[in-house]
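Residues pack. One example:


***
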Amino acid sequence: MKYGLKIAVATLAILGMSGSANAGSNDGKIQVKAMATLVAPDGKITSIELDNIGLPAGTQTEADDNFVPTIAAEYFFTPNFSVETICCVTQHDVTGTGPLDGAGLVADANIIPATLTAKYHFGDGSGFKPYVGAGPTYFIFVDEKAGSTAQALGATRQKMNDKVGFALQAGFDLPLDDKGLGLSVDAKRYFVTTTARWYADQTEILRTRHKIDPWVISAGIAYRF
């Protein structure tokens, strides 16, 4: 959350300076958005590749949800076609379910979901304008740590692999005036897997693959110029 707030404040300052030099317009080439976002990942284990600590049979995992600020920047090549990228950092813990229900396995995993989507906007550009989009993503994991239960089982550090994935997107923009200000609602579904590793000093003691696949739901204010 602290990383997301810093990025949001810095980006909004830059966008504010840009906006002061450009008159807003609902037909502008550039649109920026400041949004509140729910990130709801899956986190389930899809396979256990190494287990030197003796996980109980039927062990599963889940990742917690998070609310974060996000910034989006979009360029319109035509009234109906654009590309968009987002800026945010979201933090999650991973806990056990089943026999290890509530066990802390991963703590404070910060994810930067570098994403670029190509979007098609329906309609003639005026009023309510729904869109769909799709594109690649690259999940970057930062500063993740072994959770309390994993530490009790002998893990001294934890690492999640950065991973390429794919995102689908749908939403709408709704102008609030004729000077570029609008409301935006957006939903993305990511398809990303990662490998998690736990270490006792330099020795790997546990390796699992996980389905992340988060839903990312956003709503906020847009400005087009």
Notes: The radius of gyration is 20 Å. The longest helix spans residues 2-20. Confidence is low (pLDDT under 50) at residues 1-5, 7-12, 17-21. DSSP finds two helices and 15 strands in the chain.
